[in-house]
Amino acid sequence: MNTEELELLSDSKYRNYVAAIDKALKNFEYSSEWADLISALGKLNKVLQNNAKYQVVPKKLTIGKRLAQCLHPALPGGVHRKALETYEIIFKIIGPKRLAKDLFLYR
User: Fold this and answer.
1) Residue 61 C-alpha from the chain's centroid
2) Which of 20, 103, 11 shows the shortest CA–CA distance to 58?
3) Is residue 106 within 8 Å of 71, Cβ to Cβ?
4) pLDDT of 56-71, one tens digit each?
5) Are 75 and 34 in contact (CB under 8 A)?
6) What is d(CA 57, CA 81) in angstroms, rounded to the nearest whole number?
7) 58-65 long-range contacts, Cβ below 8 Å, gap at least 24?
8) Could you tell me the CA-to-CA distances from 11 to 8, 51, 53, 80 in Å, in that order?
9) What is the DSSP-derived secondary structure letter of residue 25?
């Protein structure tokens, strides 16, 4: 966690954002089939879009891992498409400078 994220933790709305991200990530743990993954990605996308003003993505390591799992070749194209939509949302939120710094998380 960098200093910007630590400063944001004093904002109650940002803390709610972090809690919403945690809740959205929990949906991945309970996924038993590919349709559940699409639903989990949709919920994550909604949380990210609703909090785009922060230009920071909390739990970015966990999100990066989940997105990579959703691109597994054995999964159908619909899951891949939804994961790519999530990448697009994240990249728009964080901007090019932060993306350059965090690119290793989203490979």
Assistant:
1) 9
2) 20
3) no
4) 999 999 999 999 999 9
5) yes
6) 20
7) 58/5, 58/17, 58/18, 58/21, 59/18, 59/21, 59/22, 59/25, 60/102, 60/105, 61/105, 62/25, 63/21, 63/25, 63/90, 63/105, 64/105, 64/106, 64/107
8) 5, 13, 13, 34
9) H
User: For residue 3, what pLDDT is reported?
Assistant: 79
Which segments of 9-104 does DSSP mark as H helices, in order? 12-29, 34-50, 60-70, 77-102
Tokens found for residue 26: 């929990």
pLDDT digits (tens, 9 = 90+) for 14-51: 999 999 999 999 999 999 999 999 999 999 999 999 99
Tokens found for residue 93 = 């939120």
